[in-house]
Amino acid sequence: MNDSPRRKELTRLAGQLFVQEGFDRTTVRMLAQEMGIKSGSLFHHFRDKQEILAAVIEEGTQNALTQARQALAKCSPEPQARLHALAKAHLDTLLTDRNSHVVALYEWRRLDDEARDHLIHLRDAYETLWNEVIADAIDAGLVKGELALVSRFVLGALNWTVRWYDPDGPRDSGELAEELVAMITQENPA
């Protein structure tokens, strides 16, 4: 991925437009207009619209993976603390990089095979972190259930928050993460 500041800014703007309009309805002309450049200039930074989509998803997934790894490195080794740290990191990613995350969730299926093959390692690395943390919680007896199902339920619940969570509402991301962990561990939140 080209890390130039201009490309990053164009990627951020594209993510915003993909969320507003959807990938299929977003035209190259719309992207260029949103970015404040001519349509032809867009191809100085990206090969085509598909590469723009891949850049948006790559940026968001890489940010989520980095934030998750940092959160786990800073927390205590207890399974419940790791669950909470990972859930909070996921929610924080949704707040700080919402558009990229939404595009990754809803437009992944629009990636062509080449882009999907390029990005799948990032998605798999992120899911592996979750599987490791949830497996530790299952082994410790905090969570009951089959690893694959629990992981999908937890990530599904967290991902759905992009539709309803209000960061200015009554709960911050840490409190929301506590509630989720309490639900899946069947303990009362602090």
From TrEMBL:
Does Iron-sulfur count among this protein's keywords?
Answer: no
Q: Which residues form the HTH tetR-type domain?
A: 4-64
Alphabetic keyword roster: Coiled coil, DNA-binding
**Per its record, what are the GO molecular function terms?**
DNA-binding transcription factor activity; transcription cis-regulatory region binding
Among SUPFAM superfamilies, the record links this protein to: Homeodomain-like, Tetracyclin repressor-like, C-terminal domain
Name the domain of life. Answer: Bacteria
* InterPro entries, alphabetized: Homeodomain-like_sf, HTH-type_TetR-like_transc_reg, HTH_TetR, KstR2_TetR_C, Tet_transcr_reg_TetR-rel_C_sf
A Pfam family cross-referenced in the UniProt record is TetR_N
Indicate what this protein is called per its UniProt record. TetR family transcriptional regulator
User: Which organism's genome codes for this protein?
Assistant: Halomonas binhaiensis
Upper taxonomic lineage: Bacteria, Pseudomonadati, Pseudomonadota, Gammaproteobacteria, Oceanospirillales
